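#struct-queue
[09:14] JT: dropping the first one here, sequence first, then the structure tokens:
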Amino acid sequence: MSASLAQGSLRSSSLGFFETIGQSIANISPTFTPALNVVAVAALAGQASWLVYGLAAAALLFVGLNIAELSGRFAAAGSFFIFISRGLGPLAGGAAGWALVAAYLGTAIGVLAGEAIFVNNATEPLGFHVPPVITYVVSVALVWYFAFRDIRLSSRLSVSIEAVSMVIIAALLIAALTHHPHNLIDRRQLALQNASGKGIAEAIVLGIFSFVGFESAATLGKESRNPLKTIPRAVLSSMIVAGIFFMFVAYAMVIAFNGHAGKLGNDASPLLTILSSLGAARFATFIYIIATISAFACVLASANAAARLLFSMGRYQFVHRSMGLVHAGHRTPHAAIAAGCAITLAVPLIMYGEGTMNTFDWCSTFATFGFITTYLLISIAAPVYLRKIGQASSYHIIIGALGAVSMVGAFIGSVYPVPPYPLNLLPYIFLLFMAAGGAWLLRLKTRAPQVLKLIERDLESGESEIIGRK
């Protein structure tokens, strides 16, 4: 095993900007917002739904700026584990890596359940039903194949799928807008008519979930060409593109519902309703096939991101060292990919009796806690690290503080008001998960303290090689 680890390395400089930003765009999965997420946002925020997405984008832009500061200075596979280890120490880095693996795998599981929903939305008009277990098994098998085979192939596939789906959804909404020309400047939305501050605050948490995964391009630090420039551009560009798209989606969909945001908030199939209003309900199967493919791209991107994190953590023994193995031929972290895919398939099968919608809701919410934890830590770690190397300015401190405060607010909004059962249990389940990871890290510190010292020396000694700009 040690020989394999010594000889194996990821395929360096194999991804350009197109593939790198594709990792983030696919992980965001823009099609999920018009298909599912916007309904929940509209139910809470009403006419202010477009503003919710703008505020969520602004909050995460602060996080993205902190990520850009670090990813523009050094690059590594599973970058967040390394980023936070440099700023706050190996134990904090290990905790962040643990949280983000949960976030990516939780997203993969939740979106896989959403994919099963879309498959049946597409097939039921044709008169047949596809059992979710078939969708689960076939999708995870394909995810494993593409992720194992070549990161370039899976990245190009993901970004191409998302680009096509975004164009189709945008075209559908533009067609809907042409049927309501008198409402193109919707004074009710612009004036936030009947929207409450409480509803907007609660909806922002859901808005943030639409964006999570935008940072995953940073996990490709060892495989991107010119990563010190490519990755910051990819992270920030994906956030800006998604923010503009989501604001347009929310604004246009309320207009498509004749300005009745409440009706949008109570519609389980908003795209079908819009198609029906255009006299094009027969295209519902096509639209949901596109949504299905988009969901698959998100599962693939999440699996790739999780595997890179597990790979990096395995190399440093924060998880089992087998996760640090690289396939000799394909130069991919095949053991980490296999482990991630096995978990992605096992969980929805265990939860099969709960139904696909509950699997989506619960796993996606669980994933959100992992993202918020990591975003909070990265917002703290960035200014701390820059201060260590003598490059911190008031700008860096302000951006770090704004990112941290935004994430604390998001966490509070996700647990208060207390959500209904069983969602109210998820914060405690996440804390138990983090406690298990913390116990592993403390065990490592107690039984093998030299490992942490070696990690710190390795992170410090490699600094001269990976610092890209001053």
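[09:21] JT: and here's the second one, same format:
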Amino acid sequence: IGDEPAMLAGALDLPVVACADRRRGAAALAELGCAVAVLDDAFSHRALARDLDIVVLRGEAPFGNGHLLPWGSLREPPSSLRRAQVVWLHYRRGASGGELPGRDRLAPDALLVVSEARPGAVTDLAGGAHQLAGRRVLVACGLARPDDFAASVAALGAELVERAVFPDHVRYDERMAEQLAARAERAKADAVVTSAKDAVKLGPHWRGGALWQLSTRVGLVRGAGSLAQLLEIEEETLLAAAAAQP
């Protein structure tokens, strides 16, 4: 399975199904006794009936370059937002703005939710807590936006002595782990710091020094109360779930 399902399966006491056919995946969850299925990237899977469509967009650039795949990053044209009941803008560095361009035209009836990414806990592979302030670290990650992750590490007071950037969803192996450990030793780094998504793949191969993971929390800035009402849960429950770390 992919890194994100593996990360969720390891962190949550809930069934996680990875299946290209979303109908089969939902059926498998129902057989396991689930009453609710939360699907990732399922807005375009229209053969599967759903009760609620929540579309999460990057706050800084909700429509990317405005073009569909493969020229751009959009799976569907922005006009498809009319099918959504919730449009969620997620910002990586502060929820500045917090408005969807053309909302009155594209999604006039949708609830608008705004959130921002916030640094979470720093832990080792055994779950022990650590502090980054004053530490010399090598940042290693395979993410879509590695600069954002490096900025989060630096914001916690770490000294970034070196960076190792890999393609998104990279699959680590023993050789890559050995090379990272050697680079960290040469740079006299106190630890290698990676994301939770990377740690689930790098951890099994790691034989070097300290390997820490920085998790990410979601801070709800706008729309929490209305979203909780829509989901028929308490607002405090929603806020706690958003702030939970994988």
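[09:30] RK: nice, looked through the second one.
[09:31] RK: Residues 113 and 223 are 5 Å apart (CA to CA).
[09:31] JT: good to know. Residues 174-186 form the longest helix (13 residues).
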